[in-house]
Structures are given as structure tokens and as C-alpha cells.
Amino acid sequence: MNRENKRRSFEKGYYKTHACHDTFTCKVCGRLVVPEGAGSRHRNHCPNCLTSLHVDIEPGDRASGCGGRMEPVSVWVRKNGEWAIIHRCIRCGTLNSNRVAADDNPMKLMSIAMKLLTQPPFPLERIEEMTRLMGGEGRLE
User: Which H helix or E strand runs over 108?
Assistant: First the structure.
């Protein structure tokens, strides 16, 4: 059974309390993804390219009718030190956070983490000017 059809087969909230033991083929890189090696009972993205599918509204509910591809756009660190991936749906724009799995591609994770440093949302040559405007202490004079 593929992931797209699961929401039709199980009652609402089934995957919140039950492990997902299904395998699937990644829609982006074509790799066969198995549940073993994730380090948790819930596999929700490809460990190679980190892409997911938009199947949930709330984690595990399989209630989303979108089905769009969720691309990894950023990472963040939870207060317990655990990393999580921020996914954005390319179809509807929804943002979701998914914990990093034990077998996720470390180079892909690092490239996503470094993206803001290598491609900042503002011109780097304006850092001095912005710092000066904020009085050198991060606040406006």
C-alpha cells in the first residue's frame, strides 16, 4: 500500500498511535525507503533527499487532501538539542516540522543548515551599515 492511499484505509488519527511499517518509493530521487533505520516508529521523509509528501494536517492524521511534495527548506534545533527539518509544500505552501531520522543524509542536512550562511536574505555588504544603524548593539539609536 502506498502512502497516498493510507488515509482512506485507516481511521482518523491511526498513525498518531501506531507505527508506520510501510515502504515507499521517493517521488523525487526514486529511492526505496524502508522504515528500519529511522530511529523512531514513524518514517515521514526520504533519508536520501529529505523530501516528504503533504499527507497530514496534524502529525499522523493523514487528513490532508493536498498530496503535494514537501521540500526541505531549513533545519532548526529543538530545546532538547534534537534537530528537525522544516518542510514546505510546493503545491500549497504549508510549512511542517519533522524530526531528523537516524539514517538521514548528513551532507544534505548540513547543506540545508548552511544555506542561510551562504545565501543570506540580505546583501552581506550591508552588515556594517546595519550594525552601525543599530548602535553596534543590535538596537536602533
Answer: helix 106-118
